[in-house]
Every structure is written in C-alpha cells, then in structure tokens.
Specification:
The complex is a heterodimer.
Chain A (H helix, E strand, L loop, with lengths): L1 H6 L3 E2 H21 L3 H26 L3 H31 L13
Chain B lengths: L1 H19 L3 H21 L3 H25 L12 H25 L5 E2 L8 H10 L2 H22 L7
Classes of the chains: A mainly alpha, B mainly alpha.
C-alpha cells in the first residue's frame, strides 16, 4: 500500500484539472446529444462526479478535510436528486408513454 | 505515477462509451464502470471514506436505481429516441468549445508545478467525522431533512393515483 501511494506522490494538480475538465465536458456533450431523459440524468451524474474528484484533489493538495466533507454533501444531494428525478420520469412515462425529452416540450405553456 | 494516467484513460473511455452507446442499459453499466474508476482515484488520493461511500452509494444505490427504472419502463435499443446527426455534431462541437475554454483558463492559472500526493490521514473516517460533527454539524442535520423530503417527494410523485384512474 505504501509503495503504491508513494508511486503517485507526484501528480501535478494541472493534470487533475485537465482530467476533470474532460470528464465534465463529456457530461455536457451527453446532455446535448441524447434525447433519453434517463441518459440525460446519467450525464448530469457524470458532471457531478468530475467536480467531486476535483474537490478531493484540491482537498489533498491543501491538506484541508473540508473539501472531502463537501463531496460527502454533494453525494447526499445527488442521491436526493436522482430519487425525485426518477420519480418524475416514471410519472411522465405513465402519462405520455415516452421518455423522449421532446415529449416534455409542452411544459413551456 | 503512471497508474493515475492509466486509470484516467480508462475513465475517459468508459465515460465516452456511456454517452455514445445506443442501448440505455449498456449505458448504465458503462457508467458503473466509470464510477468504479473514480473509486480507484479516491483510493489513490487516500480519501478512503469517500472511496467507500462512492462505491456503496453511487455504484450500489444510485446506479441500481437507474437500472431498476430502465427495466421497469422496459426500455431497450428499439425504443431509444435518437437525435439527428446535425444536432449530434453540433453538441459535440459545443462540448469541445467548452473544453477549449477551460484549457485556456488553466493555462492562464498556471498551476502546473504544484504536486498532489496522498495526505496521510485527512481522508480517514476519524478525521472526517471530527470535521463533519464540529464545523459542519448544522449542514449535516439539514441534509437529513433534505433526504427525508426527497423520499416523501419520490413516493408522492411515483404513487399511482387510483382516484383519477
């Protein structure tokens, strides 16, 4: 364990920034290119997780545990968001027989 | 040191597979693998508590909830709505633009010489618990109310309204 941890002693913070930016952008692309509402929510989860990892990296960089506590709160928030979001999707599917995001366009009126 | 780059590469590959796979069930499974690679990242940063929470809550609870809803609605490749190629290309181009803007911002920031290593003890349950129950006690309690509200809301929303039907 110690040798494995010693191996990663020298990851530049910049590389964590770039990696998390890539994952976040993949989440944004997922929201833009898909029409299935459930896949859309999964892309949002991907974005939340990239930010979580970046918070943990900064927390390790500054030696401050507050960042990891924030990540814990974000995870609780994501669980609540997924529960309510999926309930809404089930209700919409029951009414429209579709999970296409375009089926919800009449929410504008 | 090379372990980070290997796991980061795997994360990016599986994240791409998640959003470009046509079958939504495969999409969920690829997302589970992506979250597993994130768990490895947490372990490498010595955030052991968050690694376990990520493993149990994200992979165990949230992803199973997604899979359960997908199977409840009986979704597969045939019912998958797809956008036109033009919209897809535009979406990818917009995402790449975001990436370029972020990279430009990082170049200006210039943090490349700072090294991130695993801290010996801040990610352990003992240390995080002390912070959580001293400085963050009020947010912690409010989180429990949030979870209760979400639970009640989910039950109310998904309940079959027998009076209307």
């Amino acid at each position: 364990m110690d040798s494995m941890l010693g191996q990663i002693q020298g990851i530049p913070l910049n590389h964590y920034l770039i990696f998390c930016a890539i994952i976040f952008s993949i989440g944004v692309v997922g929201v833009l290119v898909r029409r299935n509402v459930i896949v859309l929510m999964m892309s949002v989860e991907l974005m939340l997780n990239s930010v979580n990892l970046l918070l943990v990296a900064f927390s390790a960089h500054h030696g401050d545990p507050s960042g990891q506590v924030f990540v814990f709160f974000i995870m609780a928030l994501a669980a609540a968001e997924v529960a309510v979001g999926l309930a809404i999707i089930v209700m919409v599917y029951r009414n429209t027989k579709s999970i296409d995001i375009d089926a919800l366009s009449k929410l504008r009126w | 040191m090379s372990l980070f780059y290997f796991v980061a590469f795997l994360s990016i590959i599986f994240a791409l597979m998640t959003i470009f796979t046509k079958n939504p069930v495969h999409s969920v499974l690829y997302l589970v693998v992506t979250f597993f690679t994130f768990t490895i990242h947490y372990i490498m940063l010595n955030a052991q508590f968050l690694a376990i929470v990520n493993f149990i809550v994200y992979m165990g609870a949230i992803m199973v909830l997604f899979l359960f809803v997908l199977m409840l609605l009986n979704l597969n490749e045939d019912t998958e709505p797809m956008k036109s190629v033009l919209v897809k290309v535009m979406g990818v181009v917009a995402g790449m633009c975001l990436l370029v803007v972020l990279f430009g911002a990082f170049r200006v920031l210039d943090v490349s010489d700072a090294l991130v290593g695993p801290q010996p003890d801040i990610g352990l349950v003992k240390n995080l618990g002390k912070v959580l129950f001293n400085e963050f006690l009020l947010p912690f309690e409010i989180t429990s109310i949030l979870l209760l509200t979400a639970m009640v809301g989910a039950v109310v929303l998904a309940k079959n309204d027998t009076k209307k039907a």
